[in-house]
Automatic annotation (TrEMBL):
HAMAP family: FdhD. It comes from Undibacterium piscinae. GO terms for molecular function: sulfur carrier activity; sulfurtransferase activity. Belongs to the FdhD family. Keywords: Cytoplasm, Molybdenum cofactor biosynthesis, Transferase. The gene is fdhD. Required for formate dehydrogenase (FDH) activity. Acts as a sulfur carrier protein that transfers sulfur from IscS to the molybdenum cofactor prior to its insertion into FDH. The keyword Transferase applies. It is found in: Cytoplasm. GO terms for cellular component: cytoplasm. The active site is at residue 113. One of its GO terms (biological process) is Mo-molybdopterin cofactor biosynthetic process. Transmembrane segments: none annotated. This is Sulfur carrier protein FdhD.
Length: 285
């Protein structure tokens, strides 16, 4: 287990009550998600500014640094300190980050809600990722994931306007649930939580309410997760990257419906005899 950095335990309101008028002119009080800027300083160098509701800022920053491959191991980090009085987070490393100027010179604005940003070299490292070839997901576990998301308490149910990501065990047991203004923030926060816990992703299932874009697939792959689910769809590049790294993508996961897009060998169907025979024939076709 690596030496853990000193982590602040910041807290901030996640929603705000506002007054609105409905279609009949009635005055109502509703909740809306908070959204605030958080500027990241890495060894006193301004790196970027993220928009977030502020639910898991320390984990968000750790996951972002991990998924961007700016920090390779947790014991390189001395401290992560969030200060909401100035909307900033100071990340201090023990020995600095080599070639930081070159590694952050090229930025790509992603399709993520809330405008995600990735640094340009991530796609170059996809060939180095190898996911667990033996990881499986049972159909019943898939349904358990979907049902858990449907019934789990959330900011979305109270205030809307946020995305959620969640990490599950292979049996469909919820491990982490995170909401933020963009799915890229939520996945980074889970990556940070996994990093702090020393948790491997090789036998896990990841769920997102957002699209399965290349960014989401790459981040999931970097976390070592072989199965990625969404209630939404996918993009062409997301599909291509998933095929390349050996990840199973399942989209349109609502109720008992889903679409299995890549690497069908990971899914263990649990159907009656007629349906199982038909599914087997289709997979062999």
């Amino acid at each position: 287990m690596p030496l853990l950095p000193h982590i602040s335990q910041s807290q901030v309101a996640l929603t705000k009550e506002v007054q609105v008028l409905d279609e009949r002119g009635r005055l109502l009080t509703i909740s809306i998600p908070a959204e605030r800027a958080l500027t990241v300083y890495l060894d006193k160098r301004e790196l970027l500014t993220l928009m977030t509701i502020g639910a898991n800022p320390e984990a968000l920053i750790l996951g972002y640094l991990r998924n961007q491959r700016l920090i390779r191991t947790l014991d390189e980090i001395a401290a992560v300190q969030v200060d909401w009085d100035v909307n900033a987070v100071a990340v201090t490393t023990h020995h600095g980050v080599s070639d930081i100027e070159e590694r952050t010179s090229k930025r790509v604005v992603t399709t993520g809600c809330g405008q995600g940003t990735v640094f340009g070299g991530l796609m170059d490292e996809v060939d180095q990722i190898h996911l667990n070839p033996d990881a499986k997901i049972r159909q019943s576990a898939l349904y358990r994931v979907v049902d858990t998301i449907r019934t789990h308490p959330s900011i979305y149910k109270k205030a809307g306007s946020v995305h959620a990501c969640a990490l599950f065990s292979a049996d469909g047991e919820l491990i982490y649930f995170v909401e933020d203004v963009g799915r890229h923030n939520a996945v980074d926060a889970i990556a940070g939580k996994m990093w702090l816990a020393g948790m491997a992703g090789s036998d896990k299932i990841f769920y997102t309410t957002g699209r399965l874009t290349s960014e989401m697939v790459i981040k999931g792959a970097q976390m070592g997760i072989p199965v990625l689910l969404s209630r939404s769809g996918t993009t062409e590049m997301g599909l291509q990257v998933a095929e390349q790294v050996g990840m199973s993508l399942l989209s349109r996961c609502t109720g008992r419906h889903f679409l299995l897009l890549t690497h069908p060998q990971r899914l263990e169907f649990e159907l009656d005899h007629t349906e199982a025979t038909l599914a087997g024939d289709l997979l062999k076709a």
